[in-house]
What does this fold into?
Amino acid sequence: MQIFSAPNEMQQWCLEQKKQGKSIGLVPTMGYLHEGHLALVREARRRCDIVVVSVFVNPIQFNVGQDFEDYPRNLEHDSDLLEKEQADAIFAPTIKSMYPPGYNSFVEVLGEMTEKLCGASRPGHFRGVTTVVSKLFHVCLPDLAFFGQKDAQQALIIEKMVQDLNFPLSIVRVPIVRESDGLALSSRNVHLDAEQRQAALVLNRVLKEADSLIAGGEKDVTIVRSYIRRSIEAVPQARIDYAEIYRADDLGDLEKIEGRIIIALAVWFGTTRLIDNLLVEV
Amino acid sequence: MQIFSAPNEMQQWCLEQKKQGKSIGLVPTMGYLHEGHLALVREARRRCDIVVVSVFVNPIQFNVGQDFEDYPRNLEHDSDLLEKEQADAIFAPTIKSMYPPGYNSFVEVLGEMTEKLCGASRPGHFRGVTTVVSKLFHVCLPDLAFFGQKDAQQALIIEKMVQDLNFPLSIVRVPIVRESDGLALSSRNVHLDAEQRQAALVLNRVLKEADSLIAGGEKDVTIVRSYIRRSIEAVPQARIDYAEIYRADDLGDLEKIEGRIIIALAVWFGTTRLIDNLLVEV
It folds into this structure.
């Protein structure tokens, strides 16, 4: 397994693989890898000749005062894990090589899809995401790029960007990986203390309960949303950022619960903000 | 020579060429081709295995009330010319296939480079340019893309975008092609009446005179700029949009005339706006 830090060297290596007729799978990550990331890597390994994993905590998708500095990092451990998964290359660039002085180009998806949910809580976040992902696509030249369903809004926005801008690649979404007790894996879970960790189980529990409500025939968005909110608010350590139900394909508003819908949650536990979601087909 | 109108078919064809190890040269145009465009095509023919010419009058780079509707078009004639130049493919998409309903993704370069000159006269123009060029790059997958020095600001912005966003390609700039009397070739010249056509010669004349002034040792930006403006204002049919002198590499302001500079002009003749420029190395 090779590790690249210079974008042009990574790009040359990927161009060389393409010349040899090999397909490339890219798994973009911010590192501090867990089983959720490894599920993406395994899917890429299964489907592509070459697997490239990028490890880059992207400063332009964090707002001032957000957890950019505190975001956990451990490239050595990540590298050990990826070696075991038989990844072919890691792309771990420096901030300066990705955003040299005078950097001034941005890619953005406008509209409801980027304005709602995390787009409302974190202004500019998705512009940072679409910009860095565009750069990673140009450097690593994937045929397939793998994204986790846990960041459902991100996956949706990137699919939209790929379609609108005609990127020559396809996005593969990989299901959420959960701990045995239901907590969705996240690099940020490491920040939770024991009590917060226990409290955070409300996310998966309330998603399942909402799923049951809907399966039982409930079509009223307000009723399901209120149920979710009350359940989360009943947990003292939890503070809701958002808890919403939208059309899954474009985050459009729903008149009633039908078709493909997404229930999306972002909840603070102390200073740690966790997200979770559930796709439901009614 | 093949003509493609569907972006995905064009992309598949280009992917196939790349698989065969062929290099691709792209010449993006808005059609109504003249010798200026053909100089780009010939340079591409000389340097690449495959030459793709895109012909697309891009609506999102025109402002409301600008000359999008009136922009001259003649695909049949363009196709005859390109056949003679031994281009391999024309990409002539419909507006709907490039911007389907719900289209919402944009690429932009921010800062002085896009705010000055044509960026000031035509708000949003360069966002439209960088967006469509990104799409064309993704569809046609060029190793080299050819742009005319006549649109100097555009070439500069696209070079910046390619560098910032790590596009896996290089930009080749091709010098301005002029009529024997010095008028820079432009598809818009067709709109000039005989008197305006004669008046428009002031552009090249004043660029040459400014060049002489500078060669004679003039270092004062204000003096050279005033000279240029007065000369243009002396022509009754001419109305200045801008006439400026900046650093050539980033359109930064100059304290005095030294290094690589650009003299950039945009002047109205009746309802037709023409641009011209000169690079000077002092």
